[in-house]
Amino acid sequence: MASLFDINLNRLVVFVAVVETGSITGAAKRLGLAKTMVSTHIQKLEVEIGSNLLVRTTRRLHLTEAGTQFYQACQKILQDTEAAIAMASSNTQQVRGKLRVSASVDFGASVVAPLAAKLTKMHPELRIEIISSDHRVDMVAEGIDVAIRIGRLADSSHKATLIAQFEEWVVATPEFFSDRLPQRPKDLEQYPFVALSVLPNLLNWNFVRDENVSESVRFNASIISNTSIAVKAAVLVNAGFMIQPDFLVAEEIAAGKLIRVVPEWNLSSGGIYAVFPASVQRSHKVSVFISALKKLYTEK
């Protein structure tokens, strides 16, 4: 039987990463290691404990029976270790290590990146990696510490903290509606709409006015994009109107580049959430990031 002193415990981190990402390549990407180094760690771990943990096929890695039991034990060991480190770091009030943050492309550029710059100046031992995508990422597989989710939070096994509420606004350039501003949502159906394809119902919208008057509309999209940046860029050159969260267009409205349309009519509001895996105790660096993000919105 292998002794604890015979095993390099760092290999447990590598083994868990391989299992959770499903491949040597995925684990190497998460850990920032070469694929050959990941393979070497797994091979040496199997030698050290005297048992095969993984079955390798041409397409995927599969756990053996011993590997499954070992993986479950490793998860608990690493979670307990991370909790102990977080507690120690919290007690000393030091923020250090790598923080991987996932956010949409727009939110990552306009909010997370400036906040990351501020936090890393305040905490020199903190490193922040921003993963920007307008598609949901697998937090566990990608090793994400905290993800920023915009809109209505879907049911999941993750924990979430509400950062702030936002409103959806209909906006366009002043020139686009220079002849006559639409007075009600139905009036917008005759104009080209620039839509965001990642939304579940990108063309159908329900507006409410005075709490008891509603109007459902279906817009005609002239341009559809999978990123908010491209949608905004098209609208700014008068390609049509768009619907965007208030925090993404507030700067352009203040500068007079965009105007709100049918402002008396409201769309359902949404939330900005910080989401993190439920299986992992929130680390001190995640708590610091979330507190800073909340403060950013309370000061606005």
SSE succession: HHHEEHEHEHEEEEEEEHEHEEH
**How many structural domains are formed by the residues?**
3
Low-confidence stretches: none
- Fourth-level CATH superfamily of the largest domain: Periplasmic binding protein-like II
- Give the strand order, joined by hyphens, for the main sheet: 4-3-5-14-6
Whole-angstrom Rg: 24 Å
* Helix fraction by DSSP (H/I, runs of at least 4): 25-40%
Q: Count the DSSP helices.
A: 9
Number of strands: 14
CATH class of the largest domain: Alpha Beta
Task: Say what the CATH topology of the largest domain is.
Answer: D-Maltodextrin-Binding Protein, domain 2
CATH A-level architecture of the largest domain: 3-Layer(aba) Sandwich
- Termini distance? 61 Å
Question: Biggest sheet: strands, sense, closure?
Answer: 5 strands, mixed
Structural class: alpha/beta
- Describe the global form: elongated
**Overall mean confidence score, pLDDT:** 87
Instruction: Give the strand content.
Output: 25-35%
Could you describe the 3D structure shown?
The chain is an alpha/beta fold and 300 residues long. It has 3 domains: 4-90, Arc Repressor Mutant, subunit A (Orthogonal Bundle), CATH 1.10.10.10; 93-166 and 271-298, Periplasmic binding protein-like II (D-Maltodextrin-Binding Protein, domain 2, 3-Layer(aba) Sandwich); 168-268, 3-Layer(aba) Sandwich (D-Maltodextrin-Binding Protein, domain 2), CATH 3.40.190. It contains 9 helices and 14 strands. The chain has helices at residues 10-21, 24-31, 35-49, 65-92, 105-122, 139-142, 228-236, 246-254, 284-298, and strands at 54-56, 61-63, 97-103, 126-132, 146-151, 159-166, 168-172, 192-196, 204-209, 213-218, 220-225, 242-245, 259-260, 270-276. Helix 2 crosses helix 3. The longest helix has 28 residues, at 65-92.
